[in-house]
Design brief:
257 residues, globular, 2 strands
Amino acid sequence: MLLLGAGPRALLLQLAHPLVAAGVADHSDFRADPWRRLRATLRSYLTIVYGTTTAARAEIRRLNELHRSIAGSGYRARDPDLSLWVHATLVDTTIVAHDAWIEPLDRNRRARYYAETLPIGRAFGVPTDILPAHLDAFESYVEEMIAPGGPVRVSAVGRELADAVLHPPLGPIVPALAGVPPAVYSWTLWPAVGLLPEAVRIDYGFRWGPLERAGAAWLVAGWRVWRPILPPSFRQMPHALAADRRIAAGGDPQRGQ
């Protein structure tokens, strides 16, 4: 669910910001291998959220150092406003996907989750004075970003990169499948399109008719049926399982090995 739905949804939200799209286009091989960015984003975020304190701090230092050298016409990867938007897409997508595919979070759990993400935003260089201090402020920020006239407006570059997200080549992950046409499997990413805010989906020009809705609903229904049956070792990320083991052993979830 994370790889086929939430991950691509967050990527599409990031690329809907024209300056983020420009930076990705200028400084990565995203068009040829969008999986690489998705894998890198997930690996980093999971290490920071679920890893030991030492591992999380090391990953934050690595990312901040990497981003210092990324700049171009009108953008810097270390721009606090851009860092906030990228961070916000991950937080918002987690909430939206959980609500849609697992169970709706009540207001208290939602607020607690958001509060737990604040240290991550600060670690990525988002100043406290622009980082929404609580859930209500965060929701208002996201709404303002995607509202008409807001900074999130899909550019031509963003649409080009989005096509790579929704029609990714399989060769980079399974060389033997390099020749399989994207049309054979791209429908598996329809749930990600369905999770997007309607305004962003329209701005991209994505089709979202009866076929796409039915296909996405069928996939999500299948995930819901299979999820309780699968063992935790299969349905959860290794980083999360390791953190669970540390908690079960009576330790701090972010300490110990």
